Amino acid sequence: HKPMKFAHFYGGNSHQFPADDTVTDYLIASRATANLVRARKWKNAITAYVALTTGKKVTDFQKSDALQRAAGCARNLRDYRRAEELAGLIPIDAVAITVRMENLLAERKSSELVERFADENLTKWPFWQIGAGAFARAKAYVFTKNGKTAEADLQTALAYTADTRIRTSILATMGHNRESNLNDDDGALAAYRQNFESKTNIGGAEEFRSVQRAAAILSKQTKFDEAIATFHVVDFEKQTGYWRNAMLLSRGDTLAAAGMKSKALADYNAVLADKNAQSAHLIQAE
């Protein structure tokens, strides 16, 4: 018997049909390889992604995509030599340069990245790669304290990025750059707020960090009601683990700054009562 697959159509209708599991293409194979990534089987994923580049009908775009993902797996293994070798095999220059920048960032070589790629004209790149290249270079400018140039690249990255998860990261980086390098608290606050104000609940690390920094800036400006209100997007009843305690500590600090000591103590004690809390959080709560 052939395995069965389902096709789902607009309006909720579906159709069951027999499928030949020997038939494959780049999209099907890359999805299977992505399962190795989710399982953190980095070496196997590298082998699988490289194998995707060997078919006769594989396009340069597909080869570039597969090798870019393989390089990311190599970086997760801290095998930077392998990551650079994979970058050298990428046929599309813009993708190859992006991977080289990401490799340098992973090795904490931001100054070298800026030296090598500061003059790269991203506007001449394929439109679908501009955002990734601009974001990678922007992070190097942030680390090297070149705030104005970082801001320009971050604006470009935001304009050319559709993925909501990556946009959240860009906005968080933009907030950090404005706060740390440009001394622009209002601008930083505006960037951070875009990561949570329109949401009823949050769950990503960059979203939580944005709430933390927004609350800290508002507290610094003695806008305590607004600072406390930023935590409404955090579901403290359902949140568990690292971010529950991190957000309790942040809210506790905000309440303490506002003079609400009993409420602040309640948040600190909630962290201390967590038997699985990280030692750093316990020390901070104490």
Give an account of the 3D structure:
65% of the residues lie in helices and 3% in strands. Helix 9 runs antiparallel to helix 10. It starts with a strand and ends with a helix. The chain has 286 residues and is mostly helical. The protein is globular. It has a two-stranded antiparallel ribbon with strand order 1-2.
Q: How much of the residues is beta strand, in percent?
A: under 5%
User: Helix count?
Assistant: 15
Helix content: 55-70%
Which strand order does the major sheet show? 1-2
Provide a compact summary of the structure.
The protein is mainly alpha-helical.
Q: Can you give keywords for this protein?
A:
globular
Write the layout of secondary structure elements.
Blueprint: E1 4-8, E2 14-18, H1 26-38, H2 42-51, H3 60-76, H4 80-88, H5 93-106, H6 110-117, H7 127-143, H8 147-159, H9 164-180, H10 185-193, H11 205-220, H12 224-229, H13 241-257, H14 261-272, H15 279-285
